[in-house]
């Protein structure tokens, strides 16, 4: 056993350490050493970084194509005035490093693109309008 002095945050503590690498040395039992009080550190909860641009929250209307999840718009794959078929890919949204492809729920013409690539969106946010 070796007696060591350890300094933690400016406070010195004396501790007994059993050295296990000493071949043949048998440590004699000693009186228990009372542990020094330890102060718990207070850690602040992490704060999420703000998204550069976030599209307005809200429920998509009947002609709107909503985002199925919260994330970042990677691309808008159609333009205003373009005809789209039901099931055609119209946008891509990224969440947790995974791309989710957004498809038109009905055939029609793109009446408005409501978000831009790079925008942060919440679940249910209207991405574009098909009339």
Task: Walk me through the topology.
Layout: E1 2-8, E2 11-17, E3 64-66, E4 71-76, E5 83-84, E6 89-95, E7 98-103, E8 108-113, E9 120-121, E10 126-130
Antiparallel strand pairs: 1-2, 3-10, 4-6, 4-9, 5-8, 6-7, 8-10
Please describe what this structure looks like.
The N and C termini lie far apart (83 Å). The chain has a domain at 64-130: RNA polymerase II/Efflux pump adaptor protein, barrel-sandwich hybrid domain (OB fold (Dihydrolipoamide Acetyltransferase, E2P)). The relative contact order is 0.22. The chain has no helices and 10 strands. The chain is 0% helix and 39% strand. The protein has 131 residues and is mostly beta strands. The mean pLDDT is 80. The protein has a 4-stranded antiparallel sheet with strand order 3-10-8-5, with no helix packed on it.
So what's the overall shape? Answer: rod-shaped
**Name of the CATH class of the domain at 64-130:** Mainly Beta
Q: Name the beta content range.
A: 35-45%
The largest sheet has its strands arranged as 3-10-8-5
CATH-defined topology of the domain at 64-130: OB fold (Dihydrolipoamide Acetyltransferase, E2P)
Going by CATH, the architecture of the domain at 64-130 would be Beta Barrel
- Mean pLDDT across all residues, rounded? 80
Order of helices and strands: EEEEEEEEEE
Number of helices: 0
- Outline the biggest β-sheet: 4 strands, antiparallel
* Rg from alpha-carbon coordinates: 31 Å
């Amino acid at each position: 056993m070796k007696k060591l002095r350890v300094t933690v945050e400016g406070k010195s503590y004396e501790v007994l350490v059993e050295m296990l690498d000493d071949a043949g040395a048998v440590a004699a039992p000693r009186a228990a050493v009372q542990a020094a009080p330890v102060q718990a550190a207070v850690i602040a909860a992490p704060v999420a970084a703000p998204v550069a641009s976030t599209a307005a929250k809200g429920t998509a209307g009947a002609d709107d194509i909503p985002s199925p999840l919260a994330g970042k718009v990677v691309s808008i794959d159609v333009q205003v005035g373009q005809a789209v078929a039901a099931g055609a890919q119209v946008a891509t949204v990224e969440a947790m490093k995974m791309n989710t492809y957004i498809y038109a729920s009905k055939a029609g013409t793109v009446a408005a693109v409501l978000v831009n690539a790079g925008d942060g969106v919440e679940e249910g946010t209207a991405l574009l309008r098909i009339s």
